[in-house]
Design goal:
Blueprint: H1 7-16, H2 19-26, H3 30-44, E1 49-51, E2 56-58, H4 60-84, E3 92-97, H5 101-116, E4 121-126, E5 141-145, E6 154-161, E7 163-167, H6 169-175, E8 190-191, E9 196-201, E10 204-209, E11 214-215, H7 219-227, E12 233-236, H8 241-245, E13 250-252, E14 261-267, H9 275-287
Parallel strand pairs: 3-4, 3-5, 8-11
Antiparallel strand pairs: 1-2, 5-14, 6-14, 7-12, 7-13, 9-10
């Protein structure tokens, strides 16, 4: 079993680029980390880390060894946490950023269910639609919709969100029913996040630019404006489920509805996040694993 000694320390040094930073991360002395890595290198018969006064880098052998060692350490951490889930009472504050109809009607209630299972846990749910900086704003993870541009974040797909176009009966009686997405250029459209709407036309993605009398980045505002007859709305299907059931809105352009985009859980390096954050993410992923936009 002594062949495993030094692996945790080596992985910590490789990830933090230094012995002192690794010692802080592991809660031990720098000399202990250095000694354990040196013993590991001696057993392996090769140098894993190139040391200098300013920086520590991986050698070619070290880089290859790190890829295998990292998976070993992560697997051990996950095994430990799996046991701890049954023994540790979660505490502290879970800070989440989310906005939009999915967050309000589905993610929020799911997090309420999660926090109800952990009496010592507090949740701070920020429903502001602004794009937050997770580390600077102290956010543990965020729910984001659409294309993701920040390559520094880890993203896990939460749900797929196919689209639906609708309008009120009053609007369609006054302005007629569009038969093709390009007809929308002659209609009043209720714009949410963008005025370029993507449809499926002859098996290809086609974009049409729309305009209208009402614009809002809030899904409920778009929904209510559509009910009031202010124009055509085009959002994920679950936004309109209740209104369609109550015959307040009518689906249109169905053959052309696009696949839409996905909603994601995004966060920074998962390896050292608090257990409450990891379990909350796992809970949401499991909660929405079989979620169907069309049945909501």
């Amino acid at each position: 079993m002594d062949s495993f000694e030094g692996i945790i320390e080596f992985v910590a040094v490789a990830q933090s680029n230094g012995f002192s930073a690794a010692a802080t991360q592991l809660g031990c002395s720098t000399s202990h980390v250095s000694r354990q890595v040196a013993r590991l290198e001696k057993r392996l018969g090769c140098v894993l880390l190139a040391r200098s006064t300013r920086v520590v880098t991986l050698t070619e052998a070290g880089a290859d060894y790190y890829q295998h060692a990292k998976m070993l350490v992560e697997g051990l951490q996950q095994a430990n946490e799996q046991v701890n889930r049954q023994q540790v009472a979660l505490s502290g504050t879970l800070r989440v950023s989310a906005a939009g109809g999915l967050a309000e009607h589905f993610v929020g209630p799911a997090l309420m269910e999660f926090v109800a299972q952990h009496p010592g846990l507090t949740v701070d749910l920020d429903m502001n639609s602004r794009l937050v900086n997770l580390p600077e704003d102290g956010i543990d993870f965020a729910i984001r919709y659409g294309e993701l541009n920040d390559s520094n974040l880890i993203a896990r797909k939460l749900v797929n969100r196919p689209m639906m176009a609708v309008a009120s009966k009053r609007y369609l009686q006054q302005h007629g029913t569009p038969k093709h997405p390009f007809d929308l250029q002659d209609h009043s459209c209720i714009v949410s996040n963008k005025d370029l709407w993507e449809f499926n036309i002859d098996g290809k993605k086609e974009v049409t630019k729309v305009k209208g009398r009402w614009r809002s980045n809030n899904a409920n505002m778009v929904l209510n404006a559509c009910k009031k007859g202010l124009g055509v709305a085009y959002m994920p299907k679950s936004t309109f489920t209740d209104a369609i059931a109550k015959q307040q809105l009518i689906p249109i352009l169905e053959p052309f509805w696009g696949q839409g985009t996905s909603s994601w859980i995004v966060y920074h390096n998962k390896q050292f996040m608090p257990l409450r954050v990891r379990l909350a993410i796992d809970f949401l992923l499991q909660h929405f694993a079989n979620w169907d936009e069309t049945s909501q």
